[in-house]
Structure to design on (706 residues):
């Protein structure tokens, strides 16, 4: 029992739909309401308020000294969970027990005042985050050191560059020493070097035996930093396991309703020409399992084509064209691209062929893969861009193993290529 | 410097903090308020520092504002309208009332905007929310202290003798602050939900000023209405100031009624504030 840091039981949080706008009414409107339908108003029957559950019956326990990642789509309820844990907002139902002081970092630089100097802001921000003046005084030099803005300590922060501002703000937060640290997506700001520094600092915090709850969309950071991972979707806890990788994979690929997009089946017997009838186009993994609609960029996958030939013709070629989400053609590829001895056999009757797309070759984003076919140098059977059989695949995350590269790069492709001394 | 990294483990059973839905009346949580006292002072200090750093004339505003108002009142009400001032020279008669009044009006305006003005804090960090309106009332005391020096000068100039009554002044000062805070608690919490409060406040203070014996003497009010007049808590405060410093005015039932009203406003404001506090972060 004693090693528990956070216990959450059946936690639910209800919000009004429309959020703030729906609530920030003006006095006038409220008065008008009470005049226009006074009887209903007096009986307490106001306009019905639409609500939804931003958190829905969530329960979990976190041990002391554990670093736990929280992942989920936009609007899943991650920030709401952190807000409840850090007492910013009250839950609607359920209960949370916290065995230690909590400091939360939902944003860097909360309470910074642009007219005040860096020095003043360190004290102010520290106090806002729950540090005492003595604590801040004791760590002042470390904080300044970490931020690297010594020279501008007495300049109002309104004259800081946004990078300096964020560095100073994070420096204060990084020197919090609570038993439980709750961090929302704050690493999204700042440059790569700064992000690395922050991750390092967070790693230290976790190593010191503090309990850390860390929300991020950066799967690499989660994998690096955390010992276990919580997946939230639509306010519900989907997964909580120390097998971080499987939680992440499940999060990225888990939605079965979208699975169909990676396979096309010729159920209407269309696209039939005198020689060729396409049967299916599918994206699969090594062992032939259909891919989910979204995958990370760190595994190979296959484009698999099934078809039927009415007769054998050496001029028959089949392959695919691949497009980025804005419609740009990346390339074409055919079964006859290599030396002749490596061509797959295509005889009369049904055939099944596939071609590997290597990992870390495409870029992040949605890709369309379209079947193309022709009788070489004679005629198109399935001409590119003519509403051919096609499938869609989203690539998200897993871009590289580099500590400095984890977001989408400009360009159609994002190959990981090796560099060496020469 | 050694970093000890002491991590307290809270052993078996008792959690340090338990979070539950708010049901009915919220506790006052004065202990929590006390733990965050440093934040209260830092926020107050921030407001003072920023205000004096941003204005060209800095601290002299604190002097100019009541002085100019006094000059205008002296001309219009003292010279032209010839309002009686209980035998006291009109300028100091009105200046004595302007001090608590401007403290009240300034603090009230400040605190009614305080929560909405600190949106970011409220939605991103935890601390007792009461700190915000309290911290917004305190900077007014600095202005008050500065203009009080001017008043001291005027007392000397007009050769008004001090009596032991001045010892009661802190009480009336406290009443002025409490009434500003009381109304501020109400308005700041209401403002989170109804944003048009901020248009109401300037009118409210304007009307309120004329309902308070700042430019005129409370003795103008017929005796039979006097107790009723005390329902405006600032009447009691202003009467108290004049009584303590100038020896005019009366401290009688009117002042007591004002005190009761202030207590009522304060307790109800605090209650309303604590009741709605839980939703501030969601609604603001
Ligand atoms: N104060 C509020 N009033 C009403 N609805 C709100 C409020 N705050 C959040 N919501 C809603 O609650 C849901 C969960 O929001 P939350 O901020 O927790 O999502 P999130 O998982 O942090 O998403 P993101 O990854 O985009 O940060 C969203 O649908 C959001 O619109
Ligand atoms: Mg969020």
């Amino acid at each position: 029992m004693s090693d528990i840091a956070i216990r959450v039981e059946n936690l639910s949080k209800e919000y009004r739909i429309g959020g703030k706008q729906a609530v920030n009414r003006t006095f006038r409107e409220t008065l008008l309401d009470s005049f226009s339908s006074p009887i209903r108003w007096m009986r307490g029957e106001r306009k019905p308020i639409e609500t939804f559950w931003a958190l829905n019956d969530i329960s979990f326990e976190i041990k002391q000294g554990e670093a736990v990642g929280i992942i989920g789509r936009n609007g899943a309820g991650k920030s709401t969970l952190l807000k409840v844990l850090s007492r910013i907002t009250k839950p609607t139902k359920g209960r949370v027990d916290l065995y230690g002081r909590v400091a939360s970092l939902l944003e860097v630089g909360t309470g910074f005042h642009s007219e005040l100097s860096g020095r003043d802001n360190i004290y102010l921000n520290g106090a806002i985050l729950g540090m005492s003046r003595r604590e801040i005084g004791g760590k002042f030099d470390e904080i300044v050191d970490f931020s690297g803005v010594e020279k501008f300590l007495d300049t109002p922060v309104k004259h800081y560059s946004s990078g300096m501002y964020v560095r100073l703000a994070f420096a204060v937060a990084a020197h919090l020493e609570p038993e439980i640290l709750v961090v929302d997506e704050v690493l999204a700001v700042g440059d790569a070097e700064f992000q690395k520094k922050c991750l390092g600092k967070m790693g230290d915090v976790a190593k010191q035996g503090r309990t850390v709850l860390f929300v991020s969309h950066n799967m690499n950071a989660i994998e690096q930093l955390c010992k276990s991972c919580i997946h939230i979707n639509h306010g519900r806890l989907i997964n909580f396991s120390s097998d971080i990788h499987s939680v992440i994979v499940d999060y990225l690929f888990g939605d079965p309703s979208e699975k169909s997009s990676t396979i096309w089946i010729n159920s209407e017997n269309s696209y039939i020409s005198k020689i060729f009838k396409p049967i299916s186009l599918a994206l699969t993994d090594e062992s032939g399992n259909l891919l989910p609609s979204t995958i990370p960029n760190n595994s190979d996958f296959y484009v698999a084509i099934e078809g039927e030939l009415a007769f054998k013709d050496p001029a028959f070629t089949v392959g695919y064209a691949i497009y980025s989400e804005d419609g740009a053609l990346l390339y074409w590829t055919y079964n006859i691209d290599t030396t002749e001895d490596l061509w797959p056999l295509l005889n009369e009757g049904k055939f099944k062929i596939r071609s590997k797309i290597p990992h870390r070759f495409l870029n992040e984003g949605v890709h369309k893969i379209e079947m193309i076919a022709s009788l070489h140098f004679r005629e198109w059977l399935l001409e590119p861009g003519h509403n051919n059989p096609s499938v869609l695949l989203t690539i998200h995350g897993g871009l590289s193993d580099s500590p400095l590269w984890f977001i989408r790069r400009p360009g159609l492709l994002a190959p990981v290529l090796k560099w060496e001394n020469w | 410097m050694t970093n000890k990294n002491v991590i307290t483990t809270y052993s078996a059973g008792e959690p340090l903090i338990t979070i539950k839905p708010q049901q009915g009346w919220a506790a006052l949580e004065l202990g929590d308020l006390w733990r965050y006292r440093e934040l209260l002072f830092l926020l107050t200090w921030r407001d003072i520092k920023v205000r004096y750093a941003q204005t060209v004339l800095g601290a002299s505003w604190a002097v100019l504002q009541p002085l100019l108002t006094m000059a205008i009142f002296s001309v219009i009400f003292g010279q032209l309208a010839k309002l009686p001032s209980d035998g006291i020279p009109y300028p100091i008669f009105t200046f004595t009332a302007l001090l608590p009044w401007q403290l009240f009006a300034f603090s009230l305006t400040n605190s009614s905007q305080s929560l909405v003005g600190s949106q970011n804090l409220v939605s991103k960090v935890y601390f007792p929310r009461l700190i915000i309106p309290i911290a917004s009332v305190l900077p007014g005391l600095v202005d008050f202290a500065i203009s009080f020096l001017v008043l001291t000068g005027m007392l000397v100039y007009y050769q008004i003798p001090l009596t032991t009554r001045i010892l009661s002044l802190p009480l009336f000062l406290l009443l002025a602050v409490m009434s500003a805070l009381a109304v501020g608690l109400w308005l700041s919490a209401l403002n989170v939900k109804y944003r048009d409060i901020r248009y109401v406040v300037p009118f409210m203070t304007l009307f309120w000023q004329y309902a308070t014996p700042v430019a005129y003497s409370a003795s103008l009010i017929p005796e039979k209405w006097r107790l009723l007049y005390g329902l405006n808590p600032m009447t009691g405060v202003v009467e108290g100031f004049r009584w303590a410093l100038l020896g005019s005015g009366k401290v009688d039932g009117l002042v007591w009624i004002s005190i009761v009203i202030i207590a009522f406003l304060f307790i109800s404001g605090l209650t309303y504030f604590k009741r709605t506090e839980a939703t501030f972060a969601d609604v603001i």
